From TrEMBL:
This is Peroxiredoxin. It comes from Archangium violaceum Cb vi76. PANTHER family: OSMC_OHR FAMILY PROTEIN (PTHR42830:SF2), OSMOTICALLY INDUCIBLE FAMILY PROTEIN (PTHR42830). Pfam families: OsmC. It comes from the Bacteria.
Amino acid sequence: MTNVYPLSLRWEGTTTDYTAGEHSRAAVASAPGKPDIAVSAAGGPYGGDDTRWNPEDMLGASLATCHMLTFLALARKVHLDVRGYVDDVQVVLGTEGKVTRVTEIRLAPTIRVAPGTDAAKVREMFEKAHKYCFIGLSLTSTVRMEPRIEQVAAGT
């Protein structure tokens, strides 16, 4: 089975106007039927616009979303009552040798479950989700998983 997800990336400007200083790194990512995403390089040494999504942000969001959706599907399959999921994701950009790359992505969700839910089973499904998340399977970065499981108060 093959699925294709088309998108386009639009940038306009010039890289040869040396009187204007650096060129713009601002662009727009688009996909049919979806809202546009304003993208750029990260700020600081990369010269981008920190008010726009950068590739590191988007990689972290892609992994976190894929992992969450896979976890929720597994939780449903084994009849776990998950009530909420808030992930605190960190993407670490590092230099090894002379190569800069994403070296680690940390997923640290707070997973809220119904009273009486087996926390060990929740953790097991969270870890199992990593084996099935196709974005995670596509990465060479270390994925550090640090879930925190909370039981919600009865009646919520």
